[in-house]
Specification:
mainly alpha, Tetracycline Repressor, domain 2
Length: about 180
């Protein structure tokens, strides 16, 4: 992986995105009787990964000044100047999220896409912008991103959330 791609990979928190994507695929798997094609499941999974990664990148973009003060985060690209926190990055992050939601809508249905959006919005805005500077409870609400991913998979598979998916989403939320 080239240097720039590696920086983007870490900035977008792609490893976490794969876990969120796994939650979406779990939501599909636990919903009985679905008729999704392999391509629909693949597109939904990738859409979830991209939306989650957009939220992860937004987190680092938005918090770059705070990250500069913490030992654990001071080497992040927006802090060190390897990436410039500018309008192009903001636009790229927003575009990635919009494309992910559009792909989820076209591949499955609006409810699944809405849950994909809610997961990214919860992490990017509610967790990062609103709660993180105000309370230590932010991490609990941040767990909703995975819960919404499970619901996205279930909604794609059956247009409503299955009872098993609802239970898994609740367990994931309570686990965090």
């Amino acid at each position: 992986m080239t240097g720039s791609l590696k920086l983007i990979y870490h900035t977008a928190k792609v490893r976490l995105g794969f876990l969120i994507m796994a939650c979406t695929l779990t939501g599909v798997a636990v919903t009985p009787g679905h008729s999704l094609s392999a391509m629909q499941v693949l597109v939904l999974g990738i859409a979830t990964l991209v939306a989650s990664s957009a939220a992860g990148a937004f987190n680092q973009f938005y918090e770059h000044e705070i990250d500069a003060r913490m030992t654990r985060t001071r080497s992040r690209p927006f802090v060190t100047g390897r990436f410039e926190a500018n309008l192009q990055w903001a636009g790229g992050i927003l575009l990635a999220l919009l494309l992910a939601v559009a792909a989820a809508t076209l591949a499955t249905n609006w409810l699944a896409a809405f849950f994909v959006f809610l997961g990214a919005f919860t992490y990017g805005v509610i967790y990062t912008v609103w709660l993180k500077p105000r309370t230590w409870m932010n991490i609990v609400v941040g767990g909703l991103a995975g819960s919404f991913a499970i619901l996205a998979g279930s909604a794609a598979a059956g247009a409503t959330a299955s009872p098993v998916a609802l239970i898994l989403a609740a367990v994931l939320f309570l686990w965090t």
